Amino acid sequence: MKIGIAARGLGGQGGPKQYIESLTSALLKIDRENEYYYFYNSTDYKGKYPEANEIVLKSSSKLIWDYYLIPKAVQDYNIDVMLFPKNVLPFNISCKSVIVIHDLAYYMPELNAYPFIDTAYMKLMIKSSVKRTNHIIAISESTKKDIIKFTGAEDEKITVVYEASDGKYEQIFDKSELDVIKKKYILPEQFIFCCDSITPRKNTIRLLNAFNVIKDKVPHKLVLTGGVSWKSKKVSDLVDSMKDNVIKLGYVPDEDMPLLYNLADIFVYPSLYEGFGLPPLEAMACGCPVITSNTSSIPEVVGEAGVMVDPYNIDDLAKAIYEVLTDGELREDMIKKGLGRAKQFNWEKCANETLQTFMDVSYNE
Question: Which of 200, 234, 301, 344 is most buried, with most CB under 10 Å away?
């Protein structure tokens, strides 16, 4: 079987990029029987997976790439099943297809940080893709329910396949390695950590307000990473007003993230909505206690290993942060449970379940 993967945009940051790279590595490790074809839009990525057939379809235009180059490549290389890992299926795909839907934030105006035109286009394309594709992979049960709710997809057309944290997310005991990162970012001895883009649905503003409640009771600073969205001026202004207690690092390279998790006393992730919620899993794998939301997919990921609160309740969030910071026994129990929970998610399992989906789609007329 010839399996194609649309790997456009590996140069970006965030969940979809990590998903493509981690799934790719795992698939090539477990599957020696099928042929894999990776379609890139830049020569920068060629050579990344020498075990596979790597094809560069060079175009700076996403529309040309999606609607001309990929359909043509599918025919030229006689692809049997094509994976589209970023929510949307282009038109005119002549082979069987599987799409991966990461979340349905576009359908939630109160949480959506994208411009109106982008939102309208993506809502239309996701609904169309769901109808046209042979099968859908949802990255959580919560996302599966949202797909059914917002697009009317049939239950049997969707398979839930969980993601995992990358292998680099683990406990690090090398003090010199940790000290390098501490000096690089001028980090305090004790800090609360929160990562991800600063957008409305990440709920950074309530985290800042919760931290404001307890900041005079604990010696910890709040460290934030991630870019700022077009709707986040209010958040940025609040961060600036708390600059004595809040450190904003901006974008941090992937290779530094495990060290930041290891250095943090706790990780707080009060997101209002997630398709999966990878950062809490990464934090747990690094031995960092997690306080997070009790909404959407996050309880599926964290289970009983973290403290979950109503992300809309600032007082509850503040109380949880204070309790975990000041209760050493609770922290140790959370670290132990978190490490065990993180081990339940792995990319080899994800790859096996994804491969089974390819086979089911290929053999079903």
Answer: 301
CA distance 80 to 85: 16
**Strand bridging mode 81-84 / 221-225:** unpaired
Tell me what pLDDT residue 45 has: 76
Cβ atoms of 322 and 268 closer than 8 Å: no
Tokens at residue 362, please?
């290929």
The radius of gyration of the chain's CA atoms, rounded to the nearest angstrom, is: 21
Look up residue 228 and give its two tokens.
């700022």
Predicted pLDDT at 318:
98
Distance in angstroms (rounded) separating the CA atoms of residues 117 and 320: 39
Domain 175-342 has CATH 3.20.20.80: no
Domains 2-164+346-363 and 175-342 share a fold: yes
pLDDT at 270 over 80: yes
- Confidence tier at 14 by pLDDT (50, 70, 90): low
Cross-strand partners of 158: 136
Measuring CA to CA, which residue among 14, 2, 15, 12 is closest to residue 40? 12
Q: Which CATH class is domain 2-164+346-363?
A: alpha beta
255 burial (CB, 10 Å; 0-12 / 13-18 / 19+) is: exposed
Question: Where along the chain do its domains lie?
Answer: 2-164+346-363, 175-342
Distance CA 336, CA 170 (A): 13
**What angle separates helix 141-151 from helix 116-132, to the nearest 10 degrees?**
100
Cα 31–Cα 132–Cα 359 angle in degrees, nearest 5: 20
CB 130 within 8 A of CB 90: no
- The answer, yes or no, to whether residue 267 has pLDDT greater than 80, is yes
Q: Report the alpha-carbon distance of residue 264 to residue 287 in Å, rounded.
A: 10
Contact call for residues 298 and 292 (beta carbons, < 8 A): yes
**Burial bucket for residue 13 (CB in 10 Å: 0-12, 13-18, 19+):** middle
Measured between alpha carbons, how far is 40 from 70 in angstroms, rounded to an integer?
Answer: 10
Whole-model pTM: value is 0.92
Whether the Cβ atoms of residue 243 and residue 208 lie closer than 8 Å to each other: no
Structure tokens that stand for 282 in this block: 């990464």
